[in-house]
Structures are given as structure tokens and as C-alpha cells.
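Hi support team,

I'm filing this because I wasn't sure whether my run with adenosine-5'-triphosphate finished correctly. The job status page said complete, but I'd like someone to confirm that the output block is well-formed before I use it downstream. Pasting the exact inputs I used:
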Amino acid sequence: MPIIEVNQLTKVFGKNPKQAISMLNKGYAKEAILKETGSTVGVNRASFSVEPGEIFVIMGLSGSGKSTLVRLINRLIEPTAGSILIDGEDLSKMDKKSLLKVRREKLSMVFQKFGLFPHRTVLENAEFGLEIQNVSKEERRKQAIKALELVGLGDYVHQKPGQLSGGMQQRVGLARALANDPKILLMDEAFSALDPLIRKEMQDELLDLQSTMQKTILFITHDLDEALRLGDRIALMKDGAIVQIGTPEEILVNPANEYVEKFVEDVDRSKVLTAQQIMKRAETITLEKHGPRVALERMRESGTSIVFVIDNHRNLVGYVTADDASAARKKENTNLRDIIKTDVPSVEKDTTLNEIFSIIYDSPVPVAVIENGKLMGVIVRGAVIAALAGDREENK
Amino acid sequence: MLTNLLDFIPELPIADAAKTFTEWMTDAFSFLFDPINKHFGDFMEFVADDLLMSIPPVIFILLVALLAFFVSGKKFGLAIFSIIGLWLIDNQGHWEDLMSTVTLVLIASLLSVIIGVPIGILMSKNKVANAVISPILDFMQTMPAFVYLIPAVAFFGIGMVPGVFASLIFATPPTVRFTNLGIRQVSKELVEAADAFGSTGRQKLFKVELPMAKTTIMAGINQTVMLALSMVVIASMIGAPGLGREVLSALQRAQVGSGFVAGIGIVILAIIIDRITQTINKKHD
Ligand SMILES: Nc1ncnc2c1ncn2[C@@H]1O[C@H](COP(=O)(O)OP(=O)(O)OP(=O)(O)O)[C@@H](O)[C@H]1O
Ligand SMILES: [Mg+2]
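And here is everything the job wrote out:
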């Protein structure tokens, strides 16, 4: 069951939401509605669901409604229409008391400009969520310190946030969000205020933490690289509406429309595409069954100068070149083992393009793609270059 | 011609109306005003004459100096000024007047803060309250100070109580305004953070908004105290005791010298109060 389920969620800012909604339903654009009614469409009938343990990224340009959407999910902003189910409970219909309970126990938020309380120490910041639940002082200290240690700030508990660097401040923000052990983290451009190096570090750290914590994370960003690094799935927003939801690969390889395509164009593909995405089917022969003769046959069929050799379980053994195979055939040697070369250059299936590039550059033969020792496919130099050039069709 | 035209309209009976209204108020609320006047007046006299006057001037001066020393971050300037200034007032035989004035200022300021801060909070939270109270505050501050003496006298006669009452009207607005402003200025993200973690309105107010607004509110309170002091001096016109009364009676008898001495006393008090309330504020910046 999804932990977050959002249905037709809509927010209209302004005095005349009814008219705006009826115009939305008739398909009018955000701009036309603003002109006609004076109301701004913040979020336009967004629907999606997030599974427990997932990092769900919401991405879009400035003003596309990301912040509004994430604030609708903990009802910092009241929805105009639609529903938000958290663990199956409809937040949009909840009374104040139950809403507070959900905010306290299930949802935590991390803010773009950190949102730390400057009059409180790091520790007092981290224990804020527990403090307002009236958890005993001892207990909340313990939890807060645990959370601070988790983000590597165990030594800074008595400093004021203003004394820390941006990266450290956001760690405090993260610790504050983790201290009351929520199921869901809402992160609104949490790393956008950090400089690129620190930002990357924080992304790694979040992924690290996530691998042990298994929270559900709703991560907002306007940066595609960040989205691709973090997201299990990505939702793209435009003018308040969600235009595509998919895994990073799906978004990259199959942009739903021009808007997404534009967004995707700028990505540094070498950091995003993996071996699996650009490999081709490998020509193989099986060690136990085949000899030089079959090897030559395969090469002739496929127009290549080598074939890979695998065993009965698809484990990669090596490769055979055309020269060696024809020499062996002339000598009437039918034993494949004599001519196998085992120094195959190989990469794991999720190796990124920029790493593959350096390997393939030095290698006289195509690079094998493997998973747990089993041969998955092969990458030829041309495919790498084509992928770097952004030629998607070629890669499929 | 033009003058004739103006004369054509008879004088409107505004004075009479005001008089009738005040008389009615006094009558109708005498059950409220009279006991306030009596008990509150007794209380203030007790503070001024029994409590403060029972402290020997030397001790009092040292206490003020100590306070000045600590709030100014262990610097000597203000402490030394307080010692010399207060000693001078005592030396000139105005100690009792000083105590009366201090009582009036303290009580008036305290009441202003007790009333003003909650009103400010209400205005920051409630659009309607803000819309209604704002113009009233403007009105309260545009009136010349001594105008407030009129209703004060009407309700409470003469003495300390009407002095405090007039001062309350005159001095409360800055505390209200600055409290309102201070809370509205708290950054949106901090308010969101408080809400996102599930704060109740009360928790948000006491754990985030008021602490964040503290500096601004203190600036308002500083202004309130200074206005209270000036009003308390003016209130000598309706019989409030203290340094102001000395200035007033010197004026009436054209005694330049003693008027000057009492005036200096007020200035010294003003400087000490101002510096102390301001530096308390700075420390938290
Ligand atoms: N309180 C508000 N009142 C009126 N309009 C608002 C309000 N908040 C947001 N909007 C409008 O809603 C739309 C979406 O804003 P939102 O802040 O959600 O965008 P965003 O994707 O988070 O942008 P950014 O990347 O700049 O943070 C914008 O057109 C914005 O002007
Ligand atoms: Mg935003």
C-alpha cells in the first residue's frame, strides 16, 4: 500500500477558487485563469502515490508549484480540492487535533534555508519536534543527540546554528527532522542553498542514511542532476501540473513531451547513463558445446571480429578472436580452451558512462557488461560516443 | 460676507456633548472607577511611601548601579553615571519626589506592558483586530499628551491614579505596535518549521514567535517607558506627586533655580531608565 497517495490535489491562491477550478477542469491554462479570475493556480490536479522506502523527487522550474505541492502534503497550505492520504488516512478532511498528531508522528520537514531557530542551540533545535510532543527532557535529549550523531554533528550540540557553516546547518535541519523518527521526510530544495561540493556530499550522505533508515522521502529540487542522483522515481511539474512520473531512466530515455525533453537536454549524460542502458546483445558461444567452427560462424553472421565465450550458466569465461579461431580450424584443433583469451575488459551493469569511457578507450576489444559474473551484453566504442552525443535511438 | 456665512452655522455643542458623555461614563462606571481609584491609589502610595522610601538611598543607588553594571555587560560608564546622578538628586533634597516618580513610571510601564503585549499579539494573529486597533493607536498617539489628563481627571479625580491612567493611554501604543511588528517579522520559514513539527498555536507563540520578536518588543517597551516618564511628569498638572510637581510649582512661582534642579533630576532619571532598558535589549542581539 502506498504511504502517500495524492489525488487530484489542487491549490488556487486568490479570492475566486471556484471559478478557477471550473476553468481548470475545462482545460484553461494557468495564465488564462490568472487573467480571467485574478487567481493563481499553485498546484493543478496533481495525482501520484509514493511507496514506503521510496525517494520520490518532485522537479520543475521556479514557480512550477513544487513548494506549494509539498506544503499541501502536510497541510501547511490548505488544499482547494483533492485529497492527501497518508497511510490511508485523508489529511485534507482531518480535524486540527488529528492533523497535529500526523505532523508530529509521521511527517517531518527540511527547509531550503534550513529554518533553524537561531535562539536555540543545535541540540535544542534537534529536540524541537519531541519537545512540542511533551516528551520528557531526558528522553528527547537522548533522541536528539542520537540524530545529531547520525548526521555527524555530535560535537556541536551546544553551538548556536549561526556559528555553523551552511552544510552543517542543514545537517541540523536533517537531524531535527529525524529526531522524532517520522516515516516521511519532506525536503523542499533542502540542498539548493549549499555550494556544489557540499551539496554533492549531502546527497551522498542522504543516500547513505536512507540505505539504513528506509524512510519515505519526498524530495523537491529544480536540479535534474540532483533528481537523477537521488530519485527512485521523479515527477516533473509544469505550471502546477505533473507532466511525467517515472524512473530516472524513463524520464531520460522517454521524455513525455517537449517540456521534459528540454529539461533533460542539459543533463551531463555521461554521469547519468549506465552500462546497462547503452549495451548491445553480445554474440556468444558456449564453452561446453561449441568449438572454433561455431565461433567463426557467429562472427560471420554478426559481422564482428570476436565472440564472447560463456559457460552453461551464462558466466563469462573469455572471448575468441577471428584470427585465432580460423588458425585453430586450419590445424583441425576443435578444443576451444586453447584459443580463449580470458583478459576480458568488463564493467558492472550500473557503471556510469564516464567510467566506461576510460576503460573502452584503452581496450582493443569491446567491453563486456556483467552482473554477478554473468554476461549481460557488450558495449562497443561507437555506442559510448553516440550516447555521449545524446543520440537516444541508437542506444536502444 | 464670508464671515457672515460662517457665522450662519451656530456653534455646535461639542463641548457639552463631551461633558455629558464623560459625566455619564463617570456615573455609570463609578462602581468600577471608585474602587480602582481607592485601592489602586492606596497600593501606589504604599509602594512609593512605604516600600521604596524604606530603602536607604545609599542602598537604592548601589542597587541601581549594580543593575546598570550588569546589563551593560560589566562596563562601568552607566553605573558611575547612575551613582553620581542619583546622589545629586538626593543631595538636592528630591529623594522623595524621585521615589514617587519612579513608582509612577514603574507601575504605569508595567501595566502598559501587561496590557500592550497581549494586544500586540492579538493584532499580529487576527486581521480584524489589526484593522480595528491600528487606527485607535494612531489616534492615541496623535493627541497632545496633556489631553489625556481630561478623562483621567473625570474618571479618577486628582492624584497618582489618574496620572497612571493618562500614562497608560499615552504610553501603551509603542509596546502594542512593536509586539505586532515583531511577531509579523518572524521569518516565514521559522513559522512553517514550528507548524510542520505539529506545534499548537500556543507552542508556536512561546517557543518561536515571542523569542524571535523579543528584540523588537523590547525596543517598544523602551519607548513605552520613556513615554510613561514624560506623561508622569505632565500628570503633575493633575496632582500626581514627584519631580514633575516640583518643576510645575517652581514654574508657577517663577523660581528658576529650583525648577532647574528638579528638571535636572528628571533628565538624570530619563537617561538612566533609557540606557538600562536599551542595553538590556542590545545584549540579546
Ligand atoms: N501565498 C501565495 N499566494 C499567491 N500565490 C502564490 C503563493 N505561494 C505561491 N504562489 C504562486 O504559486 C505558484 C507556485 O509557487 P511555488 O512556490 O510552489 O513554486 P516553486 O516550484 O516552489 O518555485 P521555486 O523553485 O521558485 O521555489 C507560483 O506562481 C507562485 O507565484
Ligand atoms: Mg519553492
